[in-house]
Task: structure prediction
Amino acid sequence: MSDAAASVPALVINPLSELMAAEVVGLDLRQPLDLGTRDAVYQAFLDYQVLAFRDQDLTKEEQVAFTEQFGTLEKHAQRNQGTADHPLVHIVTNLDADGVPTGKVGSMRWHTDKSFRPKPSMATILHALILPPEGGDTVFANMYAAYEALPATEKEELDGVGVVHSWELSRDNIGRTISEWEKRDAPPMTHPLARPHPDTGRKALFMGMHASHLEGMPMEDGRARILKLEAHSTQPQFLYRHHWKTGDVLMWDNRCLLHHADANFDAAVHPRVLHRTCLRGTATNF
Result:
């Protein structure tokens, strides 16, 4: 536990793995955080990269209010916008308009949220409302650890390399052609492949399914390099698997993690419904 967390009596932080992730108990996220608690939570977020707040029951308004204590809400892509009254709360669900399970699970490829934005996402906050009896996990890859495990010569090769993130390409990869409006809303963006974290200074590999190619390299060669690095980064020693509990609010750092949903449940039978908010990050200079 960090010194900041130890100074807040109601806050208990329990690591969930040796690599990353911790559960936070003792907080009711419906209530505003005082400054000391807010700072302790944010330090734990930096220390563990994934925080699981247990036993929460938030309305959309309360989730937005909790999220805004850590920064500016980020808009969602057009197709992921929430309801008209809460467009910044994306409903992650396998249910159709009639509330019937469809058998489909989204976000099953490795990615980091909003990496195609000029200011890629700082954090995602996901609140579990309805879960299958088993499964429906979210898996995280620690891109700090993946980068730090590379040979020194490869780290030097990656220094200063730009990676282009493209919403259009990532939708092509799942068989969807985006509209002209979406293309204008999310044009390709270039970020450092070995990206320094704006708060910790540690470098992390910044890629995932939105990563299109590497600047200054033929498309095919750049794609191959990205896929090779992804295979390296998603080895078991770099992973944490979150087994959801109803009421969990998960907050993770998009600047140093990849993640994906695991369809390890019968999505044609069991509903899975979560509410998602995202925080805008900062631009990174080379």
Q: What stands out?
A: The chain has two domains: 3-107+114-135+240-279, 143-233. Helices lie at 3-6, 35-48, 60-68, 143-148, 152-158, 167-172, 180-185, 219-233. The chain is about 25% helix and 25% strand. The chain has a mean pLDDT of 90.
